[in-house]
Each structure stands twice: as C-alpha cells, then as structure tokens.
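Loading example: each entry is read as two labelled lines plus one structure line.
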Amino acid sequence: MCEVCAIFGAGEHWSDFARSRNERFPFAEIQNYREDRKKRIAVLNQLLAPLSLSCEDWDGEALNLVDRQGRSRLAATLTDVWPAIKLLSGKTIDPLDR
Amino acid sequence: MTELVPLVIVTGFLGSGKTTLLQRYLATPSGARTGVVVNEFGEVGLDHRLLVHSREQIELIDGGCMCCARRSDIGRALHELVRRAKSGKGQMVDRIIIETTGLADPSPIVSSIGRDAWMKANIRLEQTICVLDSVNGQANAAIYPEARRQIAIADAIVITKQDLRNAQTPADISAFVRGITPDAMIVDSQSPAFDMAAIVERDVRSSVAPPRSTFLAEDSSHRSAWTSFTIPIPSRLDWPVFTLWLSSLLYSHGNNILRVKGLIRTTSSDGPLIVHGVQHVMHPPTHLRADEDASQQGFLVFITDGLERSAIEESMYRFQSYASPAELVGALP
C-alpha cells in the first residue's frame, strides 16, 4: 500500500482478476498484476496515439489520461477510461471500426 | 474479508408464475433463510401478501418498477437485508432473492448492483432465473421487448404451466428459448424431478455449458435484429489486450450487447476463466483449476441486438494482434 495516498495498488475491476486472488494475501501476485497492467497501458497507448492522447499508470490503481495541451483526466478503472477519452478528445475508440 | 451474500434475481413476464415458484422455494429449509425483495408495479403491493414468509425477511418496493422509477429503492432494501444477514440477530438471511415486476427489464438491476461500491463489497450476484409461461410466454416475447430481454439475460429458464391444455410442447418452447439464448439451462417446473432449491442454489459461476449445437447458437430468426452466436476460441488469449477489447466494446456497444459469457484460456493464468457480463457490466471472472474442463474448447457466447458475429470476431483477433511484443516496441511512450 502507498503510505502517502493510502492506495492499495491492486485494482478491484473485473480486468484486475486475471489470476485467482488469494483473499488472505491479495497482493501475493502483485508483480504479475503489474506486468499485465504495464502491457495493457502499452497497448492502450497504441490506440490513443491517433487521438493525440497518452495514458500512464497512477499508482497501480487508476489510469491517467493526458492530451497534448497537458490536460489530464483520471480514470478510476478500465471501464472509466473510455468516457474519459471521449471527454478529452471528443472521439470514441470503437473496436468495431476497422 | 467479509463474506458476500449471494443474490438471485427471479424475473419473468406478468402472470408467468414467479410468485408461485418463489413460494415453493421459500417453503424449503434453505428457503426459510432467504430474504426476499418483491417489486410490484401497482400502487398497492399484493404479491408479498401471497408469500407466506417471515415478515421481517420481505422488503417490498411498490408503486413503480425497480428497473427504472424505483431503482434507488433496491439499494435500501438490499442494505436492510444484508444488515440482517450480517448481524446474526433474529431470522437468519443466507441468501437474497429479488422478484422483479413482470414488466421489468432485469439488466438495469444487474447494472445497479455491478456499479454500486457498497453492493459489490457485500453482495455477489449469483444468477438470474427467468420464469416462462408455456401458454403465453412465446406470444408475450414476440410483442414485448422486456419479455425477450428477461429470457436473454437468464442463466436458467423455468418453464411453467406445462399441465395446461393449451400449453406449447416442451420441444417448441426449448427451440424458442434456444433462439434467444443458446446456453441457459431449461427446466420444466411440472417435471417430477423439478427442484426449485437445486436451481436457486446451483453454482452458475463455475459452470458454463457450451451451446449444444452451432445451428442453435447462431439463430437470428427473431422478428427483431436479435442474434445469438458463439465464437470458438481454441487458443490462449492475451488477457490485458482481451480486457481492453471487451471493455471498449461494451462502452461503445453495451446497449446492443445483452449478454456475453464464456470460457476462455488466457496467457495470465494456467486454468480456464469463466467470464460473464450483462450489457455494460462485467463481473470478475471465475477461475477454474487447470485440470478442470481440460478438453473443453474455449468459446464466447454473445446475445446482441444488431451486431454481427463476423465483426465482433474480427475485432477481437485484430486486438489480439496488438499483443505481439514486436508491435509494442514502437508504441511505448
């Protein structure tokens, strides 16, 4: 846990449960969880590049989206990333668009 | 870590027999330890009077449907029942059942539970059971979109009124249900082997049956643009990319994806995962042991309104191609 922010550093979103989580020791898999997260953010940055946005990790818990003007928006979970992208860029990432 | 109280939603169109079935279950020993939230559309609730059950275990929401006008009341009613479940005083509450109105679309209720932090911390949505009347069920589903949605998001369909003279045959009803949802369990309430307690208490999260045949799984014969289809997934998926793909798909098209469910294997864990979602809301996946369902090929079942299988399948594999490390090198900021 981050002692300054009191953030646990392991998300509770459905996408954060790639491995079965031990209820008693929820952070036993923290390294794997961070690896998945790093990869997800790298791929997300690929998708965001045409929209002039980028995404960075915020303490292993939230995702910080930033545009070229430096405006930023924090998305608490992966679900919140998509409306935040819409707010910053005015565009939607539709996976069905080729 | 506190234990989550299991929740079951019982839905079904007006007059399908929800209250009768619930009554049967509440009479069983485990039913006696069940808290019930009854929602009635009318100004004065009546259904809860038909339920012979400990008064303090019933919460009534009347004067509007909980899927729209009275949604905030679900939270209050559930809070009250969970408080009782955890206090250990008075009547025990081991499980909660929500009986929706016949006119309710259950997906907003599922969504409320999935989005509310308190509910997520205290309640585990186990399954949705849809009660389908063999006499009027099919006709209602043809007319009312709510009735079709009730069937589409259900994990189990209980067919009632098979003893009536003008009931449709079980084969007809099954074919009709399979056209909407390819994988839900179908049971006949008139069968001698029928056990409501076994259905309410079954472990749905760790058992996803693949659709029985591809023919039924790709039925789009409905009057509307509803389609249900299965995408076979023989290989392991990259989990970080899969989650990006599915969450963006649900953000852009969640209103048209009534249900997504399936068994997949990923690069992040040895055993298979069961994923399950309704409209915009996904539930945390259930993990199976690596040796469980070893021979079962991975698959995803979608029930959509107007979205085509080819588009979804193509988009999923296109996203998976982002997973290769070579492509990632240039993209890192």
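Strands of chain A lie at 53-58, 62-67, 72-75.
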